[in-house]
Specification:
Elements lengths: L1 E6 L2 E8 L20 E5 L4 H10 L6 E7 L3 H4 L19 H20 L5 E6 L1 H9 L8 E5 L8 H7 L8 E7 L13 H14 L3 E7 L7 H14 L1
Parallel strand pairs: 3-4, 3-5, 5-6, 6-7, 7-8
Antiparallel strand pairs: 1-2, 2-4
Protein name: IroE protein
InterPro entries: AB_hydrolase_fold (IPR029058), Esterase-like (IPR000801), Mycobacterial_A85_antigen (IPR050583)
Pfam families: Esterase
Amino acid sequence: MKEEFEIARKRVTIYRIKAQNLTLKADDDGLQNAGAPIVFYSAFANEADDIARALSELDGVNLTLAAVGGLEWSSEMTPWPMPALFKKEPPFEGGADEYLQTLTQQIAPAVLAKTGDAAWLGISGYSLGGLFALYSLYKTPMFTRVASVSGSLWYKDFREFALGSHLAGKPERAYLSIGDRESMSKNEYLKTALDATRDIAAHFESSDVRSKFELNPGNHYADEIGRTVKALVWLVDG
């Protein structure tokens, strides 16, 4: 089941994914899949359709996926300004705090009004979306489970920020993954991606957050859908 709406200049798509052996339940107000966990996903294009389709084909997955599109990727997914990685690319503007306020104060309440109460709220993303997902844990206690899939944790000063700052709440689960070829770069930032991801995952584990670090085969662009599905399944059932 899929529902779309617009709010705060963002396009939100709600996918109600139920386990194959469960009946889609409604609460007293008739809200479908009420009580299922909700994971917010920062969508780059239309990949959430494929993610939801793959999840729906699995046994035992009961989840509401709220994909948010229309994002200003280099601004709203980045925690602070940083120069562009390569020539002819725009710099990173560092607008994550402003967008996070929109997500928590406008988008999330609108989603919950349509879905009903959730067992828990999570946040996930790929690439810069994974960076934003982790960053949000330091700014709001709203999300208790996080998946950073091939996250851009090479971002300038982010490793130091993540290891040295206090979380806003007490996350229950954290999933971090990266491709085994993603750090094979001459770029001074990109080549740190593997170490940063591994270090941050270890930090969460040492902070008594149930965590998983996964090294996937391939570069940054390999099997985005499969990697994301695997991460979301672990958040729900890991």
